[in-house]
Amino acid sequence: MPRLRRPNQYINLDKVQHNHNFPPITNFPDIVLRINTNDSGRVMEEDSRMPRTNVGTIHTDDRHIYVTPEVSTIIQFRHMDYGMEKCSLYAILPDYVEEKEFIGSSVDVWLLDSSTEFSRQTLPEWPVAPQRRRLLTSFTFSSSDGPVIEFDCPSYGLTTLELACSSSMPCQVDFWQDKRRVPLGGVYVIQKSNAPPKQ
């Protein structure tokens, strides 16, 4: 059965006049997966924290960022809201992570060839990671607050990335991120308006 695309929520919004800029949006990946780099089939799996309580199992906002020579992390962003199409990828070691030996790890960021949304409901139907399209950038993991890379991100579109160890430098990254914790930390995107206000 073919996958149904989400309907466009922003019909004719390009014709609406506006006279001010909108504040940036912080966008964390809804789902984070990982693959074994030695697996030619690129089968994905999720490492999640789901504590059991007296009211049932709770799926938390914790996401596991885990990158080693043997494991890559797959992240996917859905770019929300209309006209916020200038994106900056951030990768900052959260202050609440006690282990600081990850600072200095060299990580490659690959854009994956995918326009299909990941979800826990559909994941069993296609457990294979998309192929790499191109290398976007390489960066060194640190506690600084500068963006890793800036890119265009069409409204309500998807960006699927693979974080992999650089072949030329040592790499070991292992921490859990929580979008509710402050100050912000982890791997996330900040979206900004791509057009000036109309006069």
Offer a quick outline of the entry:
By secondary structure, the chain is mostly beta strands.
- Contiguous low-pLDDT stretches (5 residues minimum) are none
Major sheet details: 5 strands, antiparallel
Question: Can you list the strand order of the major beta sheet?
Answer: 2-6-11-8-9
Q: Rg to the nearest angstrom?
A: 18 Å
- Number of beta-strand segments: 13
- State which percent range the strand residues make up: 35-45%
Structural key phrases:
199 residues; mainly beta; four-stranded antiparallel sheet; globular
Question: What this model shows, in words?
Answer:
- The chain has 199 residues and is an all-beta fold.
- The protein contains no helices and 13 strands.
- It has a 5-stranded antiparallel β-sheet, with no helix packed on it. The chain has a 4-stranded antiparallel β-sheet with strand order 1-13-7-10, with no helix packed on it.
- A hairpin with a 2-residue loop joins strand 3 and strand 4.
- The N and C termini lie far apart (47 Å).
What's the structural blueprint in terms of helices and strands?
Layout: E1 25-27, E2 31-36, E3 52-53, E4 56-57, E5 62-67, E6 71-78, E7 86-92, E8 106-112, E9 132-140, E10 149-152, E11 158-165, E12 173-178, E13 186-192
Antiparallel strand pairs: 1-13, 2-6, 3-4, 5-12, 6-11, 7-10, 7-13, 8-9, 8-11
